[in-house]
Design a protein that fits this description.
By secondary structure, this protein is of the alpha+beta class. 39% of the residues lie in helices and 14% in strands. It contains 10 helices and 13 strands.
């Protein structure tokens, strides 16, 4: 999620990108980085249902972001009906979201330690990110909500299996006899501390290289064989895990059973995973564009960046950013590379699209190739070695040796 400027003024865009990359190291009020905050935000959307991010500034006007956990946004004392005081009097508030008469969020109620410390944050200065499930939904719903009962059952089952396994681990041998209880005439019942020190008459005697155990008639000793967890318990756990994955919209096979699939089936599953991550990246990119625009605007006001004067200034240079995507998962990197090459040759895919799957831009790629070639030619001039020493120049084969220009 690194910002890439897409406007007309490339020189200004390089300055903005460099400043944003520095700002992202400490952009949150608690000192967290841009990437730490996005990770926690994505976790909050899935686990808690939503995440509120406030666009704020320090006392000197430096831009910062503040994350508000889900439980810190809400209402007190089960308040019902429209608000009766404040700038939003007459509007409805649903679980901390103040709605206009058209159902649009206009502010968010952030709870403090006391009611006097509660504050309403305008929607122009905050973003509530969530995965909406229905029309008119004010707050987010946890992706795990449909699987809560299954997950509680899974936790209980896991605890029971763990306790049973611990009990079985403490039992090594089982003695069976006709009565089903210990023999009261066993000398071990008469043991005292003194007898333990000088054990005379005990049924077990220590011998060189082992022990000798004496049994009474009718007794039998067998080794305990634990069958916990059983196959039925494993199948139940697997079913509960699969149902939780389905509730989150995550491919089940990627979490459980990918090793049992063939190459074609595994590629389909990974494509589903890439689609899920791509959807999340696209959704967060919308929020990130606004946050970067806010940070750039504050930087221009503070004089940390020059004002934008590009050809598309009417659109606002601060909004002319896109964000790099994460590398795509693949089951066969060689197959993916060949597929990308064929698509590029046929004109069905662009170089920018292919490089974007690896988190690179076309400018970064060309800059790296240019720098590599300059470094190679510098070494050719320094060592007077031919070009073939430093690798193949073209993908069509080894070219004739090229000596450096005198």
């Amino acid at each position: 999620m690194r910002p890439i400027f897409t406007g007309a003024d490339k020189e200004w865009g390089k300055l903005a990108e460099a400043w944003l990359n520095d700002w992202m190291q400490i952009c949150y009020v608690d000192g967290s980085s841009w990437w730490d905050g996005l990770f926690l935000e994505s976790v909050g959307i899935d686990r808690d249902g939503d995440m509120l991010t406030i666009l704020t500034t320090t006392a000197t006007g430096f831009p910062q972001l503040q994350q508000v956990p889900w439980h810190q946004m809400g209402v007190r004392d089960l308040m019902t009906g429209p608000l009766t005081e404040g700038p939003y009097a007459g509007l409805e508030m649903v679980n901390g979201v103040i709605l206009s008469r058209l159902g649009r969020a206009v502010a968010y109620r952030v709870l403090g330690k006391t009611s006097e410390q509660d504050r309403d944050i305008p929607s122009t200065s905050a973003q509530l990110t969530r995965d909406p499930r229905e029309v008119g939904q004010a707050r987010g719903i946890s992706a795990l909500a449909p699987a809560i009962l299954d997950l509680r059952c899974l936790a209980t089952l896991g605890n029971d299996i763990r306790v049973a396994s611990q009990m079985a681990a403490k039992i090594g041998l089982v003695v069976t006899n006709q009565t089903g209880i210990a023999d009261v005439s066993d000398p071990a019942y008469a043991l005292s501390e003194q007898a333990a020190i000088n054990p005379t008459g005990i049924r077990m005697e220590q011998m060189q290289g082992g022990t000798i155990q004496y049994f009474q008639p009718g007794e039998n000793v067998t080794q305990l064989k634990s069958e916990i967890p059983s196959e039925a318990q494993d199948r139940l756990q697997e079913r509960l895990i699969k149902q939780a994955c389905l509730a989150m919209g995550w491919p089940v096979e990627y979490v459980w059973g990918l090793d049992k699939m063939g190459g074609a089936s595994a590629r389909i599953v990974l494509e589903q995973v890439n689609r899920v991550t791509s959807d999340r990246h696209q959704y967060l990119s919308q929020a990130c564009k606004r946050r970067c625009a806010f940070a750039v605007a504050r930087a221009v006001e503070l004089g940390l960046l020059p004002a934008y004067k590009g050809a598309d200034k009417d659109k606002g240079g601060a909004y002319q950013f896109r964000f790099t995507s994460p590398p795509r998962l693949t089951a066969d990197s060689g197959y993916a590379s060949r597929d990308a090459i064929e698509g590029y040759r046929a004109g069905m895919r662009s170089m920018s699209e292919i490089l974007g799957e690896g988190g690179l831009t076309i400018d970064e790629h060309l800059d790296a190739i240019e720098q590599d070639e300059l470094n190679i030619r510098a070494r050719m001039e320094r060592s007077n070695l031919p070009r073939s020493v430093f690798g193949i120049l073209t993908p069509n084969g080894q070219p004739p040796d090229m000596l450096p220009t005198p």
